[in-house]
Request: fold
Amino acid sequence: MHKDLKLFTELVEYLISEEKNNPVATPIDTSKLYKTLDLSLNDKPTIDADFINTLKGIIKSTPKTASTSFYNQLFGGRIDRATLGDLLAVMLNNSMYTYKVAGPQVGIEKTILKTICDMIGYPDSADGTFAPGGSMSNYMAVLMARDKYNPSARTAGVSNKMTLYTSEASHYSIAKNASFIGVGRDQVRRVKTNDKGEMLAADLDQQISKDIEQGYQPFFVNATAGTTVLGAFDDVERLSKICKKHDVWLHLDGAYCGAVIFSDEYKHLVKGIEHTNSFSVNAHKMLGTPLSCSIIVAKDKKHLNQSFSNDAEYLYQTDDDDFNLGKTSLQCGRRNDALKFWTLWKSVGSNGLKTIIDHQFNLAQIARDYINQHPDYTLYSFDDSISICFNYKDIPAHTLCTALYEDSQLMVGFGNFKNQEFVRMVTINSLLQEKDIMHFFKTIEKFTSSTDL
Reply:
């Protein structure tokens, strides 16, 4: 093991060097991938020298998500203490379904969940779990809602027409999850949004009322804290009143930006969160922990038990159910995703997490200010978002983003909202500084001036 730990350190040093010297990996065309890198699996073992060279080749060609040139996804960067926790979790190799096999790691997870429940104003009856990504957090929420309003669905299946509601700008997982739970994609109602991508409460109210009149059973509303493209926040307080009026479950999908709960300056963006029935947040996004680290909490833990608990004597052999986390989880075997978030939170404190969140909004404002001051840019974003959506000159966004990627200049994506395509720059990497934001724009300007786009 010590030999491989030494090799691991060597490979990490190589990765860090590559991130500095070649922050955007030269992409390998998919048609050439297996000819460029030796990814074959053979009967005979690979000698160490060839094995190490192959690993370095893979590292060199893998996108550098921690580099200051990566703005492509809703995650990025590398925070030391969080990475430390993830490495320890790998070495400890616990599964999180029982206290017997996870020990104090269960206490770490429960502490995180309890603290988040307290922060958002949930009662003592609340609880939660870690899920394998934001899509699965949303799945757990809609499944709990289905089981609350149609308990027989767990055994007999869905036999009546149930309807659920989400905004036009929400994450694609809502429709996918409707098919998973037997309600069906056709029963998902797309609620209109304003120009910022915020769900229109009046349209939600109207659609629910119409469905009730036609004999449907509305049961779930998905609100969003940070829409995927524009980073918009739905008005939770207004939506909660409509959900209470019609007696439907309100879930807040905060996978992208739900971590604003840690910021005194920006937590108003989820005002009314205490009125939701469930809330999810990805710590691997705004909070910078390694992938993946997705959390879902429910106001009443009985819904977690009703939807996910099963008896299994071969697993649950000691301790009470509160410490056997498999009783409230979608999964049986489950890696320890809590430790990396705990090592970050423990080391920097809640004030440190607040600083991380505030810094990302500050970076976004720096980017918006730059765009507004330069006439060659057109801004489509708004304040209180860390998604900076813009176009440069008359260059189509997909053309610009693809060219920057293929030439190893920047990794940045493009998005579309109300038939308008634009570059989507994300300031979610809290290790970025103002000089990195300036370098981003100067790279675009220099690249386009020397390239025929």
